[in-house]
Amino acid sequence: MLDFGIAGKKAVVCASSKGLGFGCADALAAVGVNLIMNARTAETLANAADRIRDKHGVEVTEVAADITTDEGRAAVLEAAGHVDILVNNAGGPPPGDFRDWTRETWIKALDANMLAAFELIKAVVDPMIENKFGRIVNITSGSVKSPIPMLGLSNGARAALTGFCAGLSRQVAQHNVTVNGLLPGQFNTDRIESLITNSAKAEGRSREDVRASLEERNPAKRLGEIEEFGFACAWMCSAHSGYLTGQNILIDGGSFNSTL
Ligand code: NAP
């Protein structure tokens, strides 16, 4: 049986009570990783943590906090102690027309989808270097590769994080610390449901109709499942993935049409 080589290590998985973050937490726990799980809503987080404990028997510490704030990150880092694996994630910014956005709108998006990850990386990367092991995974978006016009805040903030991490990954690779991005296409989560509702309203269509078009347009003829996303995260964090760094892996059912 394939051993991922990370059983007993400790992962902080941000924004992980639901959706893609939960998928990553679940997959890491399946290969024996102990977890610090985080989200803002304590009850949903507690349920999610219980499900993972019951299923995989790993240690799970829950920290109900807003990861986009200094206090939230401090609480997560304090509960964690030494971090072997960091999965950065947060809620995505709202869609909209760029004409309506102010500096404050941008700062909020950057706080959530760039600076929260940056601050957490800054806090954990030197101890990872000393320990000669670290895996940092940023959950970003397919929009990093192929912009989604109505999600301009996401396009901008996530591209900024990706650019920073491209350089960082080359600075830390020699210490067996890797930094990579996972780029979701369209996955079955609450976030995609709200985007579907938004499009349905804007286009005067039913939600079912919008969802069916999304599925039809995708080469896989369906949306992705969080388990599929989580598996890729566990692979990226494996002890055997030390030579995989500075990469941004798109998981989108083949939706982005390119040869490479
Ligand atoms: P989701 O199903 O809505 O789940 C979001 C999770 O993040 C929840 O656990 C939520 O819990 C937590 N969260 C949100 N804001 C937080 C904060 N400030 N601090 C701590 N936890 C927070 O979303 P998802 O679909 O998994 O999306 C995850 C990320 O991937 C988002 O940035 C999204 O834009 C991006 N993405 C998703 C897709 C997709 O198809 N699903 C595609 C491209 C990009 P609380 O609300 O209780 O905090």
Describe this structure as you would to a colleague:
With 260 residues, the chain is α/β, with parallel strands linked by helices. The protein has two domains: 10-185 and 227-250, 3-Layer(aba) Sandwich (Rossmann fold), CATH 3.40.50; 188-223. Helices cover 48% and strands 14% of the residues. The protein is built from eight helices and seven strands; from the N terminus they run E-H-E-H-E-H-E-H-E-H-E-H-H-H-E. The chain has helices spanning 19-30, 42-56, 70-80, 103-131, 152-172, 190-203, 207-217, 226-237; strands at 10-13, 34-39, 60-64, 85-88, 134-139, 177-184, 248-251. A seven-stranded parallel sheet has the order 3-2-1-4-5-6-7, sandwiched between helices. Helix 5 (152-172) links the parallel strand 5 (134-139) and strand 6. Helix 1 crosses helix 8 (226-237) and helix 6 packs across helix 7. It binds NADP nicotinamide-adenine-dinucleotide phosphate. Residues 15-21, 38-41, 44, 66-68, 89-92, 139, 141-142, 184, 186-187, 189-192 line the site of NADP nicotinamide-adenine-dinucleotide phosphate.
Mean pLDDT: 97
Number of helices: 8
| Spatial strand sequence of the major β-sheet | 3-2-1-4-5-6-7
* Backbone CA Rg: 18 Å
Terminal Cα span: 31 Å
Helix percent band: 40-55%
Task: List the uncertain runs.
Answer: none
Question: What ligands can be seen in this structure?
Answer: NADP nicotinamide-adenine-dinucleotide phosphate
Summarize the structure.
With 260 residues, the chain is α/β, with parallel strands linked by helices.
